[in-house]
Amino acid sequence: MIDIRGLVVRYPDGTLAVDGFHLSVADGESVALVGANGAGKTSLLLSLVGILPSTGDVTVDGVTLDKKTVPTIRQRVGLVFQNPDDQLFMPTVYDDVAFGLRNRGMPESQVRERVTACLDRLRIGHLATRTPLKLSGGEKRMAALATVLVMEPSVMLLDEPTAFLDPRSRRVFAQALRDLPQARIIATHDLTFAARYCTRVVLIHEGRVFAEGDPDRLLRNTATMEACGIEAID
Question: Model pTM?
Fold first, then answer.
């Protein structure tokens, strides 16, 4: 699980991106982080793996984030970036998914077993020898997810995972996410996706938790959503 208490992220120019944020997410829980552009969603995710400096407390499976524990936290928390091209840089999908395991010094026989199992689990084994440069948007999303999932983190962070996907790719990707056992924090503007596939919604406004609760109820609450500059779903 992940526990966030009083998290503050301030950029060098003084901009306050996250302001005293609190959230706990249990194993297997899927939490949608919803907010207008500039609300602090991406800054929050980046701070949880130490990419952006922060103050406050972030604890993952009993380990508290600080300068010394960043490597341990990054083994336990996997981040899927908004742009899959930021995560796919090797000649083939197989090599991209294997990269982190090889970097840990895992024997190649174990790497092969883990990568093959992960690709099969996501139903993208047929992409193993393909170059990421020639994949569709949906295929890239699945490949990027595999690069994180293969590391077996206990928490997964996903930034706009359904952006630019066609309806079929969106369904396939959403199904893959729904079946994961990890705690998930998903920053998204896709309110229909959040209502259908997440167990809880946290509405973030000006870097703080504005409201949280049942996805279907909260995302249909016109007054609450409009207070944060977002149009409620029908």
Answer: 0.92
